[in-house]
Specification:
mainly alpha, glutaminyl-tRNA synthase (glutamine-hydrolyzing) activity, two-stranded antiparallel sheet, Aspartyl/glutamyl-tRNA(Asn/Gln) amidotransferase subunit C, 3 helices, GatC, Histone, subunit A, single chain, 4% strand, asparaginyl-tRNA synthase (glutamine-hydrolyzing) activity
Length: 94
């Protein structure tokens, strides 16, 4: 399947792009080169290759959760510009 100049013009119109004649020719050539490469890839026999979502095996890199003591509330809030009822007070954002 080849991309024609008319196809490029149609896609440009849908994307609201104004392309010059040179740009239309350039994009037609580039898209056809991409489709030609995809055609080469489709010639490969992948029947013996299992489907994968990732190239490398996935493993969890996060540490296990551990219960640890937290900082004192008064110490945390001592530098807060505004504090109310033991919590940070921030401006309302709508």
């Amino acid at each position: 399947m080849a991309i024609s100049l008319k196809d490029v013009e149609h896609v440009a119109m849908l994307a609201r792009l104004e392309l010059t004649a040179e740009e239309k020719e350039m994009y037609t050539g580039q898209l056809n080169a991409i489709l030609e490469y995809i055609g080469k890839l489709q010639e490969l026999d992948t029947s013996q290759i299992p489907p994968t979502a990732h190239v490398l095996p996935i493993h969890n890199v996060l540490r296990e959760d551990q219960v640890r003591p937290s900082m004192d509330r008064a110490e945390v809030l001592q530098n807060a510009p505004y504090e109310e009822e033991g919590q940070f007070r921030v401006p309302k954002i709508v």
